[in-house]
Amino acid sequence: MTRKLITVMPSDRLTVVKEIFDTTRIHHIPVVKYTTLVGLISKVDVAQYLKGAGFGNYELVDISRLNNYTAEDIMTTGIATLESTDRINVALEVFAENLFHAIPIVDHGDLVGILTTLDVIKTLQEEDTLRIKSHQGLEMSDAD
Q1: What are 11-15's contacts with CB under 8 Å, separation 24+?
Q2: What integer pLDDT is reported at residue 77 of this predicted model?
Q3: What's the rounded Cα separation, in Å, for the pair 11 and 9?
Q4: pLDDT computed for residue 140 by the predictor
Q5: Of 12, 26, 31, 121, which has the fewest beta carbons less than 10 angstroms from its beta carbon?
């Protein structure tokens, strides 16, 4: 889970959202009012919004659209959330059933993090590496 979040407010222009996606390696931005989650925007949401304009890739039109619309206009609402105390199995079920790639973590109404499929993969990889090292350590002690 990532706790150091980059967020936007519902009133932020889409130019701000696009800038975040263009300058970071994140793919999902929580939309918050203070610390309360109100929506989520994915990189795909922005791309589909621009593509849906039917104007192709004309930069001037894209900039105009981005300046005239806000995060609230394209954010997804009513999204699944988890609490930080939920077990990983719950997250795996949400990922599998809903084809989500990010789940906001909310404790007592406040956004505290976001869990992505990449976070799960990294954790499994780390656990596998530890298991292999532990197994190799056992083999070495058996050889003594």
Answers
A1: 11/70, 11/71, 11/72, 12/70, 12/71, 13/66, 13/67, 13/69, 13/70, 13/71, 14/46, 14/49, 14/65, 14/66, 14/67, 14/69, 14/70, 14/71, 14/73, 14/74, 15/63, 15/66, 15/67
A2: 95
A3: 5
A4: 60
A5: 121
CATH topology of domain 14-115: CBS-domain (3.10.580)
pTM of the full structure = 0.82
Q: Give the model's pLDDT for residue 143.
A: 58
Q: Which residues contact 38 (CB under 8 A, 6 or more apart)?
A: 10, 31, 32, 72, 75, 77
Residues of the chain with pLDDT under 50: 55
Domain boundaries, the chain: 14-115
Q: Is 119 left (phi over 0), alpha (psi -120 to 50) or beta?
A: alpha
State residue 85's pLDDT score. 96
